[in-house]
Amino acid sequence: MAIYYLVLLVFGLVFIRVVLFRILEPAYMLVFNKPLYIYWYPLLRKLQPNQKQILVSEFPFFKKLSNKKQNYFEHRVKTVINHYQFIGNDGVEVTNEMKIIIAGTYVMLTFGMRNYLVTLFTKIIIYPSIYFSKAHDQNHKGEFNPLMKAIVFSWEDFLLGHKTANDNLNLGVHEFSHVLHFHCLKSNDSSAIIFYDEFKKISNYFLDTNLNKQLLATGYFRDYAYTNQFEFLAVVLEHYFETPIEFKQRFPEMYGTISLMLNHKH
Fold first, then answer.
1. Which of 1.10.472.150, 3.90.950.20, 3.10.129.10, 1.10.260.40 would CATH assign to domain 49-262?
2. 194 closest CA partner among 215, 210, 180
3. Would the pLDDT of 12 be above 80?
4. I need a labelling partner for 252 at 20 to 30 A (CA). Which of 92, 113, 204, 218 fits?
């Protein structure tokens, strides 16, 4: 009898999942342009008190969240640290602070998305400073290498971008943006679909000659943004997190598109 009820429970849960994801969520997305839900964690993972204090000290984004969302953010940081391999190169000893700051940056970028543990990378490689990239045959501060399933950072430059909060240079946001971009090109989950739809609108600012000239004339985005669409998005997202007030004042329509893309509001 117990097995009978267990089978009924399993089928019931499967049915609910099918209804939610195949019927209700597409309709909800059509109306509200966001996933039906983002956070659902029966058991929340917790950081050690000293680890959580790093979040409090290093992330104004975290401090602005409600208590409930701070718990979700903490859960995701802990999950990212457990899910991905952190590797120190050239003498780097990976510390708790490094893990928290790197994971916190990734969680900040993906906090409005339901599926944040992407499979495009499995390891995070940390060098002490600028390193020579064999993949590109030149010195780098950071890169996303899909063939190696790795994201690579110069810790010196990662930390500089993290600590300097208003210069629109944030190596962590920049490289993780590339990961997110590639993921959303290939995935069909709700957040990825919304991201890609909004990205096509952002691409117009890069592809349209007149819009491109207007952006260049403002001097707001650095020249590197105009390298290609991938770099354009990465630089735009740096600005979105570093100088959101100025961004919104200068380009309210683009700012709104980014907010929809990430399901995020400052």
1. 1.10.472.150
2. 180
3. no
4. 113
